[in-house]
Amino acid sequence: MLILNKLIAEGAYRLCYEHPDHKEWCVRVPKKSGDYKVLKLELTNYHKVKKVLSKYITAYQEDLVETNYGLGLVSELLRDDNGKISEPIYEYMKNMDEDLSVQLKDFFSILIYTQTFFFDFNLKNFIVRIKDGKKELKFIDLKSLNMNRSWSFLQLEHVIPALALWKMKRRMKRFYEEIKQPYPFEN
Question: How does pLDDT run across 72-116, given as a tens digit for each residue?
């Protein structure tokens, strides 16, 4: 059993702890005790997208692990060259360089081309790691794959890919507005 004691981040559904034995890994546990479906969903989604998004997502271990907070999901912890935990993209918004802009466009292009539908483009879900002196974009929240939390009763985007694409592009455009960058795609 892993004893987690160093909290490093908190999301809406999970807490993220530094792995007690390996500084290159972190362990995510649910905020609500016993609510493991979000961890299982994320692990399942990782297996679905790891081939097409491997460049832009972190590595995950194959199984959930026992911790002092119940089951946990182990994933790569992003650290910069200086050993510090990498920062979210909003820390780079004032100085968004061409390399980071190109990576964002490539990430979203992959989603569009492969019809891999994500809908949660929260600024905290994009991390920028400085590795070998270069910026690497990483998307760290895979639980929103094909999960649109719209108020629509029918949620037709689950059966009409064109509608899912339209909704995803609309959320991408909102993301670009938040980071104060021009939207690089047609509507």
Answer: 999 999 999 999 999 999 999 888 899 999 999 999 999 999 999
Q: Kindly give, in sequence order, each residue whose CB lies less than 8 Å from that of residue 31, ignoring residues fewer than 6 positions away.
A: 10, 12, 13, 14, 15
Are 72 and 15 a contacting pair, CB within 8 Å?
A: no
Report the amino acid identity of residue 151.
W
Closest by Cα among 3, 34, 29, 2 to 16: 29
DSSP notation for the chain: -B----EEEE-SSEEEEE-SS-TTEEEEEESSTT--HHHHHHHHHHHHHHHHHGGGS--B-SS-EEEBTEEEEEEEPPB-TTSSBPEEGGGGGGG--HHHHHHHHHHHHHHHHHT-------GGGEEEEEETTEEEEEE---TTTT----S-SS-GGGT-HHHHHHHHHHHHHHHHHHTT----S--
